[in-house]
Specification:
There is one protein chain. A hairpin with a 2-residue loop joins strand 4 and strand 5. The longest helix is centred in the N-terminal third of the chain and has 50 residues. The chain has a six-stranded mixed sheet with strand order 6-7-8-3-9-10, sandwiched between helices. It has a four-stranded antiparallel sheet with strand order 2-1-4-5, with helices on one face. The chain has two domains: 308 residues, ABC transporter transmembrane region fold; 236 residues, P-loop containing nucleotide triphosphate hydrolases (Rossmann fold), CATH 3.40.50.300. It has 20 helices and ten strands. The radius of gyration is 35 Å and the shape is elongated.
Length: 580
């Protein structure tokens, strides 16, 4: 897992602001209503101080007192309404920004090369899109609301105090930097703990995803205790990182409160002396004490905000790290593959996942329309890799893969893959009904076409036995066998009828009797279609037009079934090993 670097804070901030800048009306509204909130709040101590002077200076001035109470009520009402509207605008900004971030992150996942998906934990990627985005949203929400009003309150009260009594104002200004320095020191030193926390949370999500997806295997091998111990270790790491982040960030508030109490004490002492010498009224001192509280309160809030923002920045950096991942090479200017007959050529192809470990070297192959090509070999020989190159899930590092004489790197991926029908050993069904899953490759298909495809795949029988038939939501079944899931995947291909087929252990989870029936349907489907078949059960590929035997990324033998058996080489050894 990549570490989140702390030296890129300026870039992260600028990118956050670029997302916020997409909503100028909400931003302006938040600022305007924040100014109104602060202005109304600043007038309340003035009216209270004047009300006290109406009582203390020359007896009780009832009419003046009544007017001050009315002014106070109006100012308070304006502050409450303005603060509500400011929060409303801020909530809109935060929710929209996080929605945009999640959308960009999810869009990026769709554009990432298969290499990224193969080499990064799925759980950590999910954690970035879900958990990190949520924490960033919380930090942004608190930051914008309190940070903005806090700064305005500090500036407003400071101006008032300097204008009204410069001596007290200067004392406050002198003591203020101490509070800021403490807050900055604590916030700076908690950044690394927030980094550790987000990384540990990603590790917990990754391991949880792995444990749930492999639960059957875990239980089959009685590995539950080892999984629990491993989870406890990762969870303890998260707990320690969270405790450190929480503990050190919580030091900020009491530290700044201590300095703020010193400010309040200084204001009270200097103001009391001025009242004693007649240079200040009791109402004036009350105003100053109120402003002193209003002035110091934002420092406590901002110190807490800074630690929240540190966590939010780390989460945002992780999301941006995903968004910045290198995409698949663009094929916007590439040609669209049209009028495909099924002629495929591999010319001196070189490919390896890791540069230091060679896999496919100098592989050449020519397949004409309608040919049935079987690819066999031991595990790790490069069979699935060859399929990845045909589908352009990976690009070759040397040579070329061509369809109808065109290099696939100069063809749009969409048009290339639309001309392939692919059934994998690993089945995948999306959330939705049975019918929606079958129609994945041909969304405009009619119900009659869907039923015909299901019948051809021998899936119609078990589908009709479901409570709602083709309208059954797969999320509610929960008990589809692996074989039934594979039959639905085969039905997809039967429906879309592409000019080229790739069958990667397409019947591995199906019983022998059903496999024979599907074999008949496949025989009809493959008529006139170029087909690549990856198979371990060699009985399924004996009638192929060409059999490629792969070892260490090389085609060591090729020919028809009878020819290869007569040679007595690698294929004969594989075949005899299964049927000895």
């Amino acid at each position: 897992m990549k570490a989140v670097k702390g030296g890129n804070k300026k870039s992260t901030l600028s990118r956050i602001l670029s997302y916020v800048g997409r909503y100028p009306l909400s931003l302006v509204g938040m600022l305007v209503f924040s100014v109104l909130t602060v202005a109304a709040s600043l007038f309340v101590p003035v009216f209270f101080g004047d009300a006290i002077d109406c009582i203390v200076e020359s007896g009780v001035d009832w009419s003046g007192l009544k007017m001050q109470f009315i002014k106070t009520a109006i100012a308070t009402a304006v502050a409450v309404v303005a603060q509500w509207l400011s929060c409303l605008c801020n909530n809109r900004i935060s929710c929209n920004v996080v929605r945009d971030l999640r959308k960009d992150a999810f869009d990026k996942i769709g554009k990432l090369p298969l290499r990224y998906i193969d080499t990064h934990s799925h759980g950590d990627t999910i954690s970035r899109v879900i958990a990190d985005a949520d924490q960033f949203s919380d930090g942004l929400l608190m930051g914008f609301t309190q940070f903005c009003t806090g700064i305005l309150t500090i500036l407003g009260t400071l101006v008032f105090m300097l204008v009204t009594n410069a001596k007290i104002g200067i004392a406050v200004v002198v003591l203020t930097p101490v509070s800021l320095l403490i807050a900055r020191f604590v916030a700076t030193h908690t950044h690394k703990f927030f980094v550790e926390q987000t990384q540990a949370r990603g590790a917990v999500a990754a391991f949880t995803d792995e444990a749930i997806s492999g639960l059957k295997t875990t239980q089959a091998f009685a590995h539950e205790k080892e999984n629990e111990e491993r989870f406890d270790e990762i969870n303890a790491r998260l707990e320690k990182a969270t405790m450190n982040a929480t503990f050190y960030s919580s030091l900020t508030n009491p530290s700044t409160r201590f300095i703020n109490n010193l400010v309040y004490a200084a204001v009270a002492l200097i103001g009391a002396l001025d009242v004693a010498f007649g240079a200040f009224t009791v109402g004036g001192l009350t105003k100053f004490l109120s402003y002193s509280n209003q002035y110091t309160k934002p420092f406590n809030e901002i110190s807490g905000i800074l630690t929240e923002l540190k966590g939010a920045f780390v989460c945002a950096a992780r999301i941006f790290e995903l968004i910045d991942e290198e995409e698949e090479t663009s094929d916007r200017d590439n040609q669209t593959l049209e009028k495909v007959e099924g002629n495929v050529n591999l010319e001196n192809v070189y490919f390896s996942y890791i540069p230091s470990h060679k896999l496919i070297e100098n592989l050449s192959l020519s397949v004409t329309q309608g040919k049935r090509v079987a690819i066999v070999g031991r595990t790790g020989s490069g069979k699935t890799t060859l399929i990845n190159l045909l589908m352009r899930f990976y690009d070759v590092q040397g040579g070329a893969v061509k369809v109808e004489g065109k290099d696939v790197r100069k063809i749009t991926r969409r048009s290339l893959r639309k001309n392939y029908g692919m059934v994998l050993q690993e089945t995948w069904l999306k959330s939705g009904t049975v019918k929606e899953n079958i129609k994945l490759g041909k969304p405009d298909a009619s119900d009659e076409e869907v039923i015909a495809a299901a019948k051809a795949a021998h899936a119609h029988g078990f589908i009709k036995r479901m409570e709602k038939g083709y309208e059954t939501p797969l999320a509610e079944t929960g008990m589809l066998s692996e074989g039934q899931r594979q039959l639905l995947c085969i039905a997809r291909i039967m429906l879309s009828l592409p000019p080229m087929l790739i069958l990667d252990e397409a019947t591995s989870s199906i019983d022998t009797r059903t496999e024979r029936k599907i074999g008949d349907a496949f025989d009809k489907l493959m008529q006139g279609r170029t087909t690549f078949i990856v198979a371990h059960r060699l009985s399924t590929i004996v009638h192929s037009d060409l059999i490629l035997v792969m070892e260490n990324g090389r085609v060591v033998e090729q020919g028809r079934h009878e020819e290869l058996l007569q040679r007595g080489g690698a294929y004969a050894a594989l075949y005899n090993g299964q049927f000895a």
